[in-house]
Amino acid sequence: MNIAPLWPRARLVMRHGKTALLVVFYIAILFCLADGILDVVLSQGRLISSRFNEQTAKIRDRNGLVSGVVPAQNYYRFADMRVAEESTAIGATPLPISRPGFHIGPDGERLTPAVRSPVATGLLLGASQAFGLYDLDDETLAANLQRALPGIALRNFAVPGQKVRQSIATWRVLRDKRMRFDFVILVSGPMDLTECRSGPALEAREPGLALARLFGRAQSKRVGRDALHCAEPREVALQVDRLIYDLESALAYARRVGVPLAIVVPPTPFGNRSDHSNLQFGERFMGPLTWALRRRLEQQPIAGVYDLSGAFDGQPPYFIDLTGHMSATGQAVLARAIARRVGAGFFSPADKVAVASPAQKSK
Questions:
Q1: pLDDT tens digits, 81-115
Q2: For residues 201 and 228, what is the distance between their CA atoms, to the nearest angstrom?
């Protein structure tokens, strides 16, 4: 077969094919360079954005309020808070600081207005709700409990982000320092539930390249949703089981050292009737986990555990953000609910301590 007439055409195809391959190669190089640059820019952008959000994004209402509840200056007072190197046992302990209305003393204690000649002194443990994140010293749960229980002093060693077992470890550390308390209140539960994740599903759905992330809003939203709560009912049940075990272990430790312990499961923005219209988020964050925990405690009550997750009446916005940080109003309502449910006899002999009525508080 004579292929001579085809040779010019073949050379033309080879020349154009070579050009096409070079074009593809250069496009691939440009794509990789662009992806690398975008990766750096996006990561730096997220860092800058997070710092900006930390300082200002929550200050969004025209009246200078955080989430429509907390004065903006309260938020700024907490911006300078620093923590010691995180310990696996007790978490990240806040370092001493002094700002108007916001004081942290030695050992990470959130300072509470002093009570003269208290008949009993208690220890308050828990995460950021008990700590009083974004609340002033006289607005925290400890301060409100002191008002609800005249004659009682509270020392607040709650640590933001602390789990139940870490709170008990903190108690042990304080006991080693010869600190003694007449009773202990542990406000916890929701923080432990946030440990629930769906890691493999999260990684499988996340776009790998920076350019893909720009066009992967749907996948990213799916990832964000799955990262906030357990994906399957079985995982929810297992998470609640683990929390129940930690609560029972905490009560066992209290019995062993001979100090009364009351564990309070506080409200979260979801799973109750509270007004969270000031928060632009959906029910997905804590709803399934909160309802599962409430059902378990209703079906299998535990002596010493007080489920106050439904304590709010649905009127004012008691929360300032999605993770359940409470306003001064929310802290006051929760303190009164604790005083009523736990009972004055837990805190001190009944003839010395009485739960203050609203009329008494107003004097």
A1: 888 766 767 778 889 999 888 999 988 999 999 99
A2: 12
pLDDT of 212 above 80: no
pLDDT at 204 over 80: no
Burial class (CB within 10 angstroms; exposed 0-12, middle 13-18, buried 19+) of 21: exposed
What is the chain's Cα-based Rg?
A: 27
In 3D, which of 177, 188, 216 has the Cα closest to residue 293?
Answer: 188
Instruction: Quickly count helices (H) and strands (E) in the chain.
Output: 14, 9
* Residue of 76, 106, 78, 108 lying closest to 93 (CA atoms): 108
With a CB cutoff of 8 Å and minimum separation 6, the contacts of 261 are 183, 184, 185, 186, 250, 251, 253, 254, 304
Q: Rounded to an integer, what distance in angstroms lies between the CA atom of residue 58 and that of residue 75?
A: 8
CA distance linking residue 264 with residue 167, whole number of Å: 13
Which helix (H) or strand (E) is 70 found in, with range?
Answer: strand 70-71
Average per-residue pLDDT for the chain? 76
Q: Do 317 and 68 form a contact (C-beta atoms < 8 A)? A: yes
Q: Are 338 and 306 in contact (CB under 8 A)?
A: yes
Q: Which two tokens stand for residue 5?
A: 């007439």
Reported pTM: 0.72
Question: Are the CB atoms for 53 and 46 separated by under 8 Å?
Answer: no
